[in-house]
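#structure-requests
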Amino acid sequence: MTIEVRVPQLPESVADATLVSWRKQPGDAVARDENLVDLETDKVVLEVPAPVAGVLKEIKFTDGAKVTSGQILAVIEEGVARGATRAAVAGSVAAPTPLPPAEANGGSASAGAKLSPAAKRVAEENKVDPKTLSGSGRDGRVSKSDVVNYLQAKQAPSAPAPAPTPAPVPVPASTPPGARGARAEQRVPMTRLRARIAERMVQAQATQALLTSFNEVDLKAVNELRARYKERFEKRYGVKLGFMSFFAKACVEALKRFPSVNASVEGGDIVYHEYFDIGVAVSTDRGLIVPVLRDADQLSFADIEKSIANFAARARSGAITMEELTGGTFTITNGGVFGSLMSTPIVNSPQSAILGMHKIQDRPVVVDGEVVVRPMMYIALTYDHRLIDGREAVEFLVTVKQCLEDPARMVLSV
């Protein structure tokens, strides 16, 4: 019996998906729930599992094709022995893909390195065994440049013993480009996620009156709390006590006092959200995504830390869901983990504000008339000036600062 594999139902906000790569080829045996193909949307990469065990009989779309909900991606011959080869289904396969040498001898590309379509083509043209290649991409994926570098290294003559040479002569600016050596370029299509990020960032800049205000926070009290309770916290809840839970709680307190920072503009209306869904920016190999902490005001410190750790792990493995990336009334981004000392984050439209955290750095400050060294952090609030006045933005930052410098305020809501 033949079983059709279809594109899963996509959310209403997603019109189509791009077929990234097939994990199996026609003739390959597949197990039930084994991933057949990756589909990329504006936000996440979706895996399409095999509905039954059998042999992949036919694929309908090649890598890079755009597909929509319900379209047939492939056909599986159910119940065929796992030892079946491509020859067993050659008569029914539509437009079979040329096989690398390793697969032509009965092997499978999935048993060795994973090649991108361009890399596979170059490897086939030069009769390169995929198993000899090492990939620099995600999950060890081999790119075209990896294959080219392999061929160049293989063809390069063995270096002779070094001989004395005269001092190098500087290359004048007028030297023809050919005399400067190879100057390679690689052109790759922008991923759906990167294209969507670019679109949203440009949209925010074009439609909102963005302004950034700064303040600085003394994190001595937070550091002392973390040092005092980190072992008991981790032992009890199974997660480390980080900084993000303190900042999320401080932002919730500030949002309660300044509702306009938690609001958004829709046409000629201002929508005041009476809930606190905090987006937390997470960096992945594919780009920046923002999973959302729903009802952050009702979450404990442990709940926040567990959620963020879970989001980060699943975002980087591509397992995060579309629903977890949708919505949000306010966002926090932490450039400090990469060493950023100060920046002006861009609002995640249609939200009206975003808080930027930065690197913690010991600096001399004046406390009670004395110069002392404290762990200081610059914080930035970028906001839509159409909705949020400068006074509200500054007082919002002051509230965040006060909550972090005296964490008891977050417990007592004062």
